[in-house]
Design a protein that fits this description.
Helix 10 runs parallel beside helix 13, helix 11 packs antiparallel against helix 12 and helix 12 packs across helix 13. It is built from 13 helices and 16 strands. The strands form four sheets. Strands 1, 3, 4, 6, 7, 10, 12, 13, 14 and 15 form a ten-stranded mixed sheet that branches. A hairpin with a 2-residue loop joins strand 6 and strand 7. The N terminus is likely disordered.
Length: about 475
């Protein structure tokens, strides 16, 4: 049986029926206003209402706290925090204090701001490779399976979270990687077409593992505590559409139980705080912070300000002041240099201009085709061309961004619903590449991922151009 056939046909038929129902519902109800994914306040194919129902069924209504505000001062080591696709930068100082005290935090994110917190714990988010197993021959619907650990006595062990899980169907997943000195407990892995295993979900122990009784033969020390950080590279696993799969639903059950179950240092049985997308943060964990913690928090705030400047630019007043200072510096340089004599140099117009130094399309193509060019730069080129084509097809203003484009596509129906979902995921990947380029960060983008992105964009733009041909005549 081939890898795609290994996926449950019954589960596939359930997803197909569910997806068809979503498409029909959209056609009947009209396009409507654009909305964010991973919401709990509405029933939709991309919301998390089914996951919330599973959590409440497992833990009880009173132990599941859903909100748009995370008050760190209300948390205890017995509690757990579950974050879906955070659009807010998580406070590292508070999260670290919470985990060190024995709390548990789950970060389920692919293209949100969760990577900033994960990097502080030496966990990185990468593009997922082409999977060996996939649903309906679609690499975006990769199949991941529980990681099996073989003990010295020959037993095959799996993490309790995935005890009842055989396979999980993903939706545009991201892979995880770590620094060499970091050891994580693998929970789910993705096998690529070359039979290499990649981390998809893992757990890191925050604290002294030996003191907490995690080392074989070493008893736990009294009053020693260890927190747990769970990381997974695809929040779409738990949207209503994907919860139709038995493995995805069992994973949800196992995760919510694990986050509040007892530990070696004692029973926890706390509350599970669930947040998604944008949320606010208030308070400090475990009371007033000391001087070192205040300093660390201030450095975190400074880093957040620098990130905001990189993304949104300088405020108007500061921009004007910077321009004035730059003008004064240029005037001073001109004054000092006006009387300085320079040696005449030989003319360079006779020298051949390298292709990469030439302007126009030829020079641009040469830069992009250069072996030393980062693939993320090619992704930015695809992003620019895609936005320009779609703005023309939809007759949008010149500076309309991805959000306005997606909203217009949903309203006009220029491309079908499936293409809209794929385009939304591609825009998120392209935004991650743009952020890495602007921030001089390292982002490995395989050439195969670039080619796949190009093919998917060509199909989407073909639909948009046909729409423009019908409506611009």
């Amino acid at each position: 049986m081939s890898a795609p056939q290994a996926v449950s046909r019954r589960a596939y038929r359930r997803l197909r029926r569910f997806g068809t129902g979503v498409a029909l519902a959209l056609l009947v109800s009209g396009t409507g206003a654009a909305h964010a994914s991973f919401e709990f306040s509405r029933e939709a194919w991309d919301s998390l209402t089914d996951f919330l129902a599973v959590a409440r069924a497992e833990l009880g209504q009173g132990r599941v706290v859903l909100g748009a505000r995370l008050d760190w001062s209300q948390l205890t080591p017995a509690d757990a925090v579950l974050l879906f696709h955070p659009g807010t930068r998580v406070e590292f100082t508070e999260a670290s204090s919470f985990l060190t005290a024995g709390g548990r935090l789950a970060m389920i994110d692919d293209f949100g701001k969760g990577d900033e917190l994960l990097r502080r714990f030496h966990i990185r988010r990468d593009f997922a490779p082409k999977p060996l197993e996939m649903l309906n021959d679609n690499p975006s619907l990769a199949v991941v399976r529980p990681h099996v650990h073989h003990s010295p006595d020959g037993l095959s062990l799996r993490h309790p979270i995935v005890k009842q899980v055989q396979q999980v169907i993903t939706n545009h997943p991201a892979a995880l990687s770590t620094d060499n000195h970091v050891e994580l407990t693998s929970v789910l892995t993705l096998e690529d077409s070359k039979n290499k295993q990649h981390l998809f979900a893992a757990i890191g122990v925050i604290g002294d593992g030996a003191a907490c009784g995690l080392s074989p033969g070493i008893p736990a020390r009294r009053n020693a505590t260890c927190g747990r950080l769970f990381a997974m590279g695809d929040p779409s696993v738990f949207i209503n559409l994907m919860m139709a799969f038995d493995g995805n639903r069992e994973l949800a059950r196992g995760l919510v139980r694990y986050l509040v179950e007892g530990d070696s240092w004692g029973q926890r049985e706390g509350k599970l705080y669930i947040l998604a997308n944008e949320f606010t943060q208030t308070g400090q964990f475990a009371g007033e912070p000391g001087l070192d913690r205040k300093l660390e928090s201030a450095l975190d705030d400074l880093q957040q300000l620098l990130d905001q400047v990189r993304q949104e630019g300088l405020p108007g007043t500061l921009t004007t002041l910077s321009a004035a200072l730059l003008a004064l510096a240029v005037a001073a340089w001109a004054y000092r240099s006006s009387g300085k004599l320079y040696d005449r140099r030989s003319p360079r117009y006779v020298a051949e201009t390298p292709l990469v130094a030439q302007g126009g399309a030829a020079g641009r193509a040469a830069v992009l085709a250069s072996p030393s060019t980062d693939n993320a730069l090619i992704v930015l080129e695809l992003k620019s061309a895609t936005e320009e084509t779609l703005r023309y097809a939809l007759r949008l203003p010149p500076h309309s961004g991805p959000g306005a484009i997606l909203a217009s596509l949903a309203q006009t129906g220029a491309i079908d619903t499936r293409a809209q979902a794929i385009l939304s995921g591609l825009f998120a990947q392209m935004a991650a590449a743009e952020k890495a380029i602007v921030g001089s960060e390292s982002l490995r983008v395989p050439l195969s991922s670039v080619k796949q992105m190009r093919d998917e964009l060509e199909a989407i733009l073909d639909q948009a151009e046909k729409y423009a041909g019908r409506n611009h005549s």
